[in-house]
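Sequence in, structure out. Go.
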Amino acid sequence: MEEEVIFKGHQNIRCRHKTTLEVTKDDYLTPRGDCIIGINANKACYDLSDRFKNALRKSKVTIKIIVGNYEYSFNAYGSKELILSNKRDMVIRKS
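Output:
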């Protein structure tokens, strides 16, 4: 099962946070947003399909980030406690 989220870069993207990645629908970014990897996203948690949300709550998933010719992927583990209702962004945390 796949869910594609398209987002754009920004001059203030630093992606220096050690435990958090975020993609936002916002069209701006301040230098303080050190976990944000993309803006102007076409989806937030709220917009994900119900089928995908249910899969996230139950299982291990592989997240793949593709930027140009570069690809980064990692495994993540969901939780039945995930609400996945935010209408502005998606946040992935390492625990």
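Check: The chain has a mean pLDDT of 95. The beta strands are 20-24, 36-38, 60-67, 70-77, 89-93.
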